[in-house]
Amino acid sequence: MQITFDTKPFATLEADALVSYLFEESDPIQGRISEIDTAAGGLLTKIAGSGEATGKTLEFTLIHAPAGLKAARLLLVGAGKRDQFSSATLRKVAGAALRYLKSRSIRNFAFLVREGAASAETAQALAEAFITADFETDKYKTEKKNGKEIDSVRIAGYSDSEKSSGEKGLTIGRIIAESQNFTRDLVNEPSNKLTPQILAERAEAMAKEAGLAVEILDERKIADLKMGALLSVAQGSVEPPRVIVITYTPANGKPGAPVIGLVGKAVTFDTGGISIKPADGMEKMKYDMAGGATMLGAIRALAALKPNVKVVCVVPSTENMPGGKAQKPGDIQTAMSGKTIEVLNTDAEGRLILADAIHYAKQLGVTHIVDAATLTGAIVVALANINVGVFGSDQAWTDKLLASAKATGEKMWQLPMDDEYREFIKGSFADIQNIGSGKGGGSITGAWFIREFAGDTPWIHVDIAGTAWNDDAKPWLAKGPTGVALRTLVHLVQSF
């Protein structure tokens, strides 16, 4: 899909549709919308007066053959209250507009930004919106949506002097959105098409294309490193595990500068192991590698954006299967750090593989860690599918991530890590146990388990179990993988 700027007067733009947005206020026909209304002989004033166009969020008003415009159609999308409008709202409005028009077999349109909004930030948000909204999860369908493709989008409302800034924002937005779609494509793959070995191969190909250093640890190297927690999860599957290590090194890095570790859980299919999950919904467990895919997408974007900070991405990958060699509840495993773990539930496997990955990342020299994982069902109970759960050992580091989340419009909420919760994972027969002994607080005890292996290194855990997958399509996003947290992580690294 081609995205360009067109600085000609919007009334002269020839397109299948001209799109803009209304605010919810007493008179929604203001600013540039009033200019369109004048050209259309007051039609929009009449429509607003009848209550058909109120500006309520994602309310669509489609007008065919609008008078005074060269465009074949005019689409107005509600953007909600003006004082609550943000880049996050704009992404939803623009993405929803694309999907609305795409479903009607429209091939190209122009998007008119409102007065005073022609900035690099706006252009970046629009690029992210259009590219992620255009992503479909029909890769394996033999009958595609023939004829329902968007070929091109032109961004209007920028002057010639504003276009240069807009182009910079557009470039950044495209990099981030394409990396988010890279993540979503990985998450969307079924487990027979994406084993740990295939994931490693795809990650290696991406890294080489992006100019990143890459190392793939196979099962022999993993065993040599004594990653007992990861191997304990992998032992029930015929598919061997992999650890993916990708490193971005800035051209002008300084000695002693921070090194960011991005660690992501990549269980390519999770049956629950011997503590097997119910059959209902188990097919969705192909998405249990979303944390790892997010980190791979993030470092892909960072390779192009070139921040001045070193980043090490570590992705442990395995299946969790109930084979004859699978670990059993009550088994005691020894992690790479030497800490012993009593496995009370084999379905609490993500924290096991992250334990070894985080310890290894520390050995590689990272000074600050963020891990991402579809870790717990408990986070869905706590936050539903609205907010990402955030847990941290260092408040300054955690605040930095939360600020990035706010800046990029991704909803995240910090949960407590009080010392009392640590008592829940004290082991009876080993150093720690992999599930909490108390009732409730499952997402917190899961985070505490991972924190044990971060030690004194500033660490953040983001639990994306409730937000990495859409069970139903959103107006601005297809059903399936979301790529959540990638924008926040990229912004966090860039903030250095």
Question: Describe it for me?
Answer:
- The protein is an alpha/beta fold.
- The protein folds into two domains: 175 residues, Leucine Aminopeptidase, subunit E, domain 1, CATH 3.40.220; 306 residues, Zn peptidases (Aminopeptidase).
- Strands 7, 8, 9, 10, 11, 14, 15, 16 and 18 form a nine-stranded mixed beta sheet that branches. The protein has a six-stranded mixed beta sheet with strand order 1-6-5-2-4-3, with helices on one face. Strands 12-13-17 form a three-stranded mixed beta sheet.
- It starts with a strand and ends with a helix.
User: Which word captures the global form?
Assistant: elongated
Uncertain runs with pLDDT below 50, 5 residues or more? none
Question: Helix segment count?
Answer: 15
How many strands, what sense, and barrel or not for the largest sheet? 9 strands, mixed
Q: What portion of residues belong to β-strands?
A: 15-25%
What's the number of extended β-strand segments?
Answer: 20
Please name the CATH topology of the largest domain.
Answer: Aminopeptidase
Name the CATH superfamily assignment of the largest domain: Zn peptidases
* Percentage of residues assigned to helices: 25-40%
Mean pLDDT: 97
What is the CA–CA distance across the termini?
Answer: 32 Å
Number of structurally distinct domains: 2
The CATH architecture of the largest domain? 3-Layer(aba) Sandwich
SS-derived structural category: alpha/beta
| C-alpha Rg (nearest Å) | 24 Å
Quickly name the level 1 CATH class of the largest domain.
Answer: Alpha Beta
Oligomer: single chain
